[in-house]
Design a protein that fits this description.
Elements (H helix, E strand, L loop, with lengths): L1 H40 L6 H4 L7 H22 L18 H23 L1
Helix pairs in contact: 3-4
Length: 122
């Protein structure tokens, strides 16, 4: 049972974090639209800043750095875990699972860098 429980909870934690993040953002958006509807019902002219979706500046760079850090942390965690599976394979052999977020983060970083170069040139 513990053979299945540990990987299950390791997989469930990031999914739960994403679920909570998306739920929080959806709640924020719902509240913003409720506020706009209440203002429109009262006949108040809506400011244009309220109509535009909020965006983070340099979100691509921020996302890249978070994914790179997460990928490196995941790889380091699996590499440092002691123990072996029932078939004799070491848990540290799973370090490659951290390569997916690491490489995705490097892709975002490259995209951010190329967009910065295009903006300076154009």
């Amino acid at each position: 049972m513990e053979f299945i429980a540990i990987p299950f909870f390791l997989t469930l934690a990031p999914v739960l974090i994403l679920f909570l993040t998306f739920r929080y953002r959806a709640g924020q958006t719902r509240e913003r639209y409720q506020t706009m509807l209440q203002l429109a019902d009262k006949g108040v002219e809506l400011p244009t800043a309220l109509l535009v979706e909020p965006r983070l500046a340099y979100s691509e760079r921020r996302r890249a750095l978070v994914l790179i850090g997460g990928g490196l942390g995941l790889s380091a965690m699996f590499f440092a875990l002691p123990g072996h599976f029932e078939n004799g394979q070491a848990v540290s052999g799973l370090w490659g699972f951290g390569l997916l977020p690491l490489m995705t983060g490097l892709g975002y970083l490259a995209s951010w860098w190329l967009n910065q170069r295009e903006g300076a040139r154009g």
